[in-house]
């Protein structure tokens, strides 16, 4: 009997009447979980389950993956191309031919009038890798603009820049199996249980088999911090101070791996001179971590037989995010923890295929991590594609965060947005709106016509979503995995690679090139281009069928190999001019905006487990959206008492750039001088955020912002909340 009830309602499991299971890899975060989608007799997706023999997730799924099959029936999908002459006109239905003709004609007109780089293209981390490759081929080899980037600049650009500066090339060197081997794990600005639950499960499995120290560096008491052995509640933006201080202790106490440094590293003397200034006492006054604790953590990390560092947006989204990444790499290099089991510097990527766009989209260079700055790379790709090498620019153009200011200044007249939503995801949202209004022409290609950025488009192209097309994605540990098509896209929506290939036919240069029609043929072309004895990003030994059979394969996997390689740089050879990694000597620069008397609170932001990015997907799935359907703010109860703020009341947050209305949730998870808002909501946190950029990666400082709290009329706040909550 439970609370006086004699009869309990029995637990029942509904029979979804699945008649067939289709293999895929999850399309949300970068973990790369193998998933099976169950279809009923009518071919409708009705269930999702983890694939039991998959090396990544071993049958497990998080809440987003469990309900992922519901994506095919979500509201707001685009089912036909739409066009209009002015953004204040109503959209009119169009045919694909008319919409693509219009897009090509406008691109040609604008380039002839203003120059090749007057067009900008902003892509995503959500497409299939074959689609990224095709888009890069179209932009670099046909359209010819150099202003081409992906929304991964908002999340992973600092990791990319840090890897390039330290190791000579992008590409995470470690893997999930390192959790099984490590003797110490330090996490920076990463809340694994909510951001990447299955990676956290892998870590928990390892900890249950063999206990090792878990250290979490985060200004907020996240779920991950609560599970840690040591939580370092660092002052926001001071990660490099802590990292330099850890290196100071290691070198001062002779705990470094000197043999590894001498054999495999450049710049040791310069690093030693810089970190000498960051003794624990001096560092503690800046980063807020006790000097003795800094010494303790440094000793634990350096003395461990193997140690690994992971990080996510807490490091990357800063005006000195790249320096933070290089500081983490420094720590691992001086302790010899690169390329060994349990020893790695592993960035936990954001989107399901952010790695795919880094590898093959040609955003930052040319396919396969080739660089525009290298003549031999331009010649190699030009010959392969059948274009003139002089058509390629000699250096990278504007990144996403520089494209919008270039629209303001009149340098860019046309914009093509592919599967991303900058009107919600970019910092300083009011400024983005004004920039979009200045464009002569904008085309938005997205699976959802109610994506906020569509409101500023002249042409809307409906794209197919996950499961409505077939191809590969690459996860955090360089594992290439396959999404099989299991359902048709709605109406006239098309796979993105089809859109790119069809648009190419509208250009003279495009008609002279070959664009394969199927993703398997595109993958074969990528395989040929990936070959190279010294090239880490070699996928020539893979195929779609083999990838499915092995439930994902890590690159490099060269032709003739039976499986992929779990780690990079195990031989101590790096893709730098002399084959050695670079130790970077970096001084700390204070944040550009810190709390003050007028704006006394740090504003922190991040992901919650039930939502993804700007909610165009998860906001439509009831079993996900019901947990947090409306914007809210975590606030410390003591601060709330001082401000006269009550739990579950509305307040107005104000920064130097704008304001936002949120509901208050009182919690001890945030310190006295900080508030936290989930990043997912339109007209919310990015009305406040700072648009300043990291000088290397051009990634925005989403987490470097100061705000004040103001009272607001509760009825008016409730009305605004309902008005802004379309879903």
TrEMBL record:
<keyword id="KW-0408">Iron</keyword>
<dbReference type="InterPro" id="IPR041957">
    <property type="entry name" value="CT_Nitrate-R-NapA-like"/>
</dbReference>
<feature type="domain" description="4Fe-4S Mo/W bis-MGD-type">
    <location>
        <begin position="19"/>
        <end position="76"/>
    </location>
</feature>
<keyword id="KW-0500">Molybdenum</keyword>
<dbReference type="Pfam" id="PF00384">
    <property type="entry name" value="Molybdopterin"/>
</dbReference>
<dbReference type="InterPro" id="IPR006656">
    <property type="entry name" value="Mopterin_OxRdtase"/>
</dbReference>
<keyword id="KW-0479">Metal-binding</keyword>
<dbReference type="Pfam" id="PF04879">
    <property type="entry name" value="Molybdop_Fe4S4"/>
</dbReference>
<dbReference type="InterPro" id="IPR027467">
    <property type="entry name" value="MopterinOxRdtase_cofactor_BS"/>
</dbReference>
<keyword id="KW-0534">Nitrate assimilation</keyword>
<dbReference type="InterPro" id="IPR006963">
    <property type="entry name" value="Mopterin_OxRdtase_4Fe-4S_dom"/>
</dbReference>
<comment type="similarity">
    <text>Belongs to the prokaryotic molybdopterin-containing oxidoreductase family. NasA/NapA/NarB subfamily.</text>
</comment>
<dbReference type="InterPro" id="IPR050123">
    <property type="entry name" value="Prok_molybdopt-oxidoreductase"/>
</dbReference>
<protein>
    <submittedName>
        <fullName>Nitrate reductase</fullName>
    </submittedName>
</protein>
<keyword id="KW-0004">4Fe-4S</keyword>
<dbReference type="Pfam" id="PF01568">
    <property type="entry name" value="Molydop_binding"/>
</dbReference>
<keyword id="KW-0411">Iron-sulfur</keyword>
<dbReference type="InterPro" id="IPR006657">
    <property type="entry name" value="MoPterin_dinucl-bd_dom"/>
</dbReference>
